[in-house]
Amino acid sequence: MKIRRFLSTKYFDQLASRSIPILAIVALILSSYGSVGGLYLAPSDYQQGDAFRIIYVHVPSAFLSLLVYLVMGLSAIMGLIFRIKLFDMFIAGSVWPGTCFTLLALVTGCLWAKPMWGAWWVWDARLTSELILLFLYLGVLALRSAILEPKAAAQASAVLLMLGLLNLPIIHYSVYWWNTLHQGASIRLLEPSLIAPSMLYPLLAMIAAFMAYYLLVVLLHVRGEILLHTLEA
Amino acid sequence: MFNRFFFSRVIVNLGYELLSVCRRYQDIVYPLLFLIITVVLFPLSSNADLQAIEKIAPGVFWVIILFLLMLTLEQLFREDWQEGELEQLILNQTDLLSAVFIKLFVFCLMLAVPVTIMAPILSLTLSIPMMALKTLLISLWLGMPTLVFLGGIARVLTLGLRHSGLLIVLLVLPFYVPVLIFASGAVTLASMGLAANASLAWLGVFLLLSVSLAPFVISFVLRLGISDF
Hints:
The complex is a heterodimer. By secondary structure, chain A is mainly α. Chain A has a single domain (16-228), classed as Four Helix Bundle (Hemerythrin (Met), subunit A) (Up-down Bundle), CATH 1.20.120. Chain A has seven helices and no strands. In chain A, helix 3 (85-117) runs antiparallel to helix 7 (197-232). The radius of gyration of chain A is 19 Å and the shape is globular. The model of chain A has no long low-confidence stretch (mean pLDDT 89). Chain B is mainly α. Chain B has one domain (6-226). The longest helix of chain B has 30 residues, at 96-125. Chain B is elongated, with a radius of gyration of 19 Å. The chains are: A mainly alpha, B mainly alpha.
């Protein structure tokens, strides 16, 4: 099966139409396990009590905010080098979800921090760089809305997205590079995680559910844009 | 591009740009006046509470420099674009890179000269101690080219749009934040008598990266702008 076929809008439309129901079911199952497991089944934390459960929204949305920007940035590079229209559609469909995920991560972080650690906001490295990420998203939104010609808007926002990719390693490694207040990474890929399994598995399920939801939203948007292009052509 | 006439082409271009700046004294005098007026606003607004100003003075100075850039970045390529000169430059494949670099360099000089002249007086107004003046000047000379070259990228992305002034600011401020943090950090350390070498070194990193890579991005965006999509 040649994968490069799916870069054309016709084949991708078929792939998307088949994937959307599957993604919806997957997102539903994973998020129900994640919510029930996280909000009800997981034991309450030793130090934080039941208030830690906002982690099941905060961590997935923060993870997604980075993942969405990574997807947009890579699509921007591929779209600029190879001039494939599909990648511009990915970017168009990802901008609003990414902004909302970043906003959600920041807001749930503030809501978590005030009762737990006493301050709504501190200017430490990870929070500041996540705020910069929000400004980057808003800048892309502003640029796309300001340029009227859609192809010019896509190219200009692609250049801006590429430049903003530098922020992602800063956010991710900020807890290692600086003396930050934000907690370091508790979930590890190849070693046992620092978090109890009964809390970990719902969290991983919520992250996967958010990813499935994001893919769902993007594919719906891309299908709509493919339809629009087919009508205009 | 790097043939035997490269050096003379660069010198002629540089002379032409400098001459056009020198013929309009407004380009250098207006930033000077802007700096004086805005710096004076801070002691006036805090009832001349010098202790309070002293603590935030380095940050305030650098934020004023950022405001200066935000207000003047709009005129960076504007006249060249409006008179059609920019399109001719873009069509001339060999010289676009050096022309962009020289325009940015001259714009940076145009802003750096008034800032350098006024820096001692302004730092006195803001209660930045004299021992921090050398660090302040070095942070300005390292930071302002970075800001101008990054601003140039935002400028060409929004060339020809209606609200390009504010849009440039929105696009480029996330990239200005690290420069601001390190530059005001350097001056704060120096005003406490500590060594600011680390922060200035980071400013140097940003300077080298932005000055070397921004002209390529700018010429790429300019070529995108007039290509057939």
